[in-house]
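Saturday, quiet lab. Running sequence design on the structure tokens for the scaffold JK sent over.
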């Protein structure tokens, strides 16, 4: 473990915000984690890949940088394999590991920034797949009792971009490992239109999981800014759900509105479209703004302040509310 004091968080957040933390501990084992927690009185924040956080000010506490590593095959049968993955593994590296070993299911989730530990936290999802359908258990350390707890899929209370770790148990646990059940035979999911058209452009009719991964990577690279080049944290807002009744009113007023009826009496609306209709897509304010190819993504071109980006997000929430009567919710954590 390393412990640094009064250090910049610039290299530790993909938004590229330059704030300081009082302390930063890099955690490489659960024992180290227990040790530092048993001697700590400061506020704590757990950082995985730093890809879903907007820092708006210096942090007067202890940041735990998760560097727990390792992938273990813990069980398998004729059709499935169970992998227990340490939470500090880089998400995309884990996806690549699965593809190389022909463990199927993660391919649609290629190139999502962040760590394995963050994947259950916000139930990451993309191109028709959500990680909750592959997670069988989450292991986590309770920050106060320092006891390890095991959460079944049910215990996790997964929802769209949410879980118990973002709601009832927010701030109470450090996720140490996640167990995934993956298929030995591919079950290719190309229901999301963009994958289908990308595979056609690649002239592939019988895709392998590697082809699907490549198609997803191509789509992401064409639409989403690379955090190594332009600071961002992916979708800044969630796609909102409205009642079916409200959706009907919206469809009458705005016939082209992208809408996705759910099976619980609600309809999901594309937040990117709502923001674009309010004139924000590609809008820049000096060194920050809204991405030009995907209005859900706010960007830091260089040295922007977290507070400026936060204020822009509030302005967007107000504009969308005024025009459509929908209150957007931030997906990114704000500190
Ligand atoms: N759209 C616009 N303008 C925009 C952006 C989108 O009109 O600026 C429209 C598109 O034309 C399309 C619809 O909105 O009709 C949906 O767009 P897209 O397929 O790009 O997906 P999204 O709903 O905007 C979500 C996830 C992404 C994920 C993609 C693909 C959320 C908050 N975001 O975006 O996840 O990659 O679907 O599955 O659910 C992330 O969470 O960080 C993220 C990037």
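Result came back. Writing it out in full:
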């Amino acid at each position: 473990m390393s412990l640094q004091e009064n250090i910049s968080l610039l290299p530790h957040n993909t938004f590229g915000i330059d704030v300081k933390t009082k302390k930063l501990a890099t955690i490489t084992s659960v024992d180290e984690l227990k040790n530092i927690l048993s001697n700590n009185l400061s506020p704590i924040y757990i950082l995985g890949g730093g890809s879903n956080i907007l820092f708006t000010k210096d942090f007067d506490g202890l940041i735990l940088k998760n560097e727990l590593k390792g992938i273990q095959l813990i069980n398998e049968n004729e059709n499935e394999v169970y992998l227990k993955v340490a939470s500090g593994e880089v998400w995309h590296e884990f996806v690549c590991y699965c593809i190389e070993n022909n463990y199927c299911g993660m391919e649609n989730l290629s190139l999502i920034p962040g760590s394995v530990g963050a994947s259950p936290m916000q139930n990451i999802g993309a191109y028709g797949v959500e990680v909750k359908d592959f997670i069988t258990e989450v292991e986590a350390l309770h920050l106060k009792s320092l006891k390890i707890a095991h959460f079944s899929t049910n215990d996790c209370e997964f929802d769209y971009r949410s879980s118990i770790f973002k709601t009832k148990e927010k701030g109470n646990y450090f996720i140490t490992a996640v167990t995934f059940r993956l298929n030995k035979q591919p079950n290719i999911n190309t229901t999301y239109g963009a994958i289908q058209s990308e595979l056609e452009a690649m002239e592939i009719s019988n895709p392998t999981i590697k082809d699907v991964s490549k198609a997803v990577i191509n789509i992401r690279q064409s639409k989403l800014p690379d955090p190594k080049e332009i600071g961002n944290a992916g979708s800044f807002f969630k796609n909102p759900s409205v009642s079916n009744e409200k959706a009907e009113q919206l469809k009458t007023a705005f016939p082209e509105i992208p809408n996705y009826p759910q099976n619980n009496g609600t309809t999901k609306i594309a937040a990117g479209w709502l923001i674009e209709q309010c004139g924000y897509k590609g809008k820049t304010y000096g060194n920050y703004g809204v991405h030009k190819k995907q209005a859900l993504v706010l960007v830091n071109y260089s040295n922007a302040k977290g507070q400026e980006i936060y204020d822009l997000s509030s302005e967007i929430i107000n504009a969308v509310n005024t025009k459509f009567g929908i209150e957007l919710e931030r997906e990114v954590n704000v500190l």
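Notes for JK: The mean pLDDT is 96. The chain has three domains: 2-66, 71-183, 231-334. Ask whether to fix the surface positions before the next round.
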